[in-house]
From TrEMBL:
Listed GO CC annotations: chromosome, telomeric region; nucleus; Smc5-Smc6 complex
EC number(s) given by UniProt: 2.3.2.27
Domain RING-type: residue ranges: 188-229
Subunit structure: Component of the Smc5-Smc6 complex.
Organismal lineage: Eukaryota, Metazoa, Chordata, Craniata, Vertebrata
Protein name: Non-structural maintenance of chromosomes element 1 homolog
Subcellular location: Chromosome, Telomere; Nucleus
Organism superkingdom: Eukaryota
Amino acid sequence: NNLMAAQMTNAHRRFLQVLMSNGITEGSEARKLHQHCCETDKVYYAHDKLDDFISTINSHLQPLFMQIRKGISEEDGRAHYAVVNLAETEVTKMASDYTEIELELFRKTMDLIILSENGFASSTDILNLADQLKTKKMKKKEAEQVLKVFVEDKWLSEKNGEYTLHTRCIIEMEQYILSNYQDVARKCNLCHSLAIQSQVCESCGIGMHLPCVRKYFRGQTEPRCPKCNEFWSCDTP
């Protein structure tokens, strides 16, 4: 296997270190970082070789049960990269950073978001959960602070008092979500990544990310489902 034989250079190591310290890196930043690392280390650089560069790193991370994964932002469809620990579940991944009560609030928030129609949960609904936690009750003020930390740490995103899962969370926890929410979690029919904010076909039930819907139906006069060919009844963005 040529990839396994490819040497891990200082450029690869530097790229990996920055990715790990960022938590998540937007695609254009990853491309700039790729160029910077190659030029600093004086190794071959080609702008269209980022995926190969990452594959080399991943072949060396494999024995450590780690991987650089690519995911898309559900909001604008832009690519992001994150380092994922494949040996850990969602709970152990976050357990070193948060207390048991904070994790319980996160899991309940996750429930609300994933079980919702549109992939969002309002701050009111989340804060109402704070005094129903099994670990111990949490005051609303305290819960507000914890939510703020989850946003800062890029596990949640917030817009006008509505919370959803951050791209980092979706990349890192895709497997956990798919296996723990089997009845409701779905992959996007177009890009095959986990879709939290999505539109769903009323006829056959497939889902698509909003940026994927936008891309797929662009220029079509009558939007039809890519799977069952029935009329797509959602308002296309």
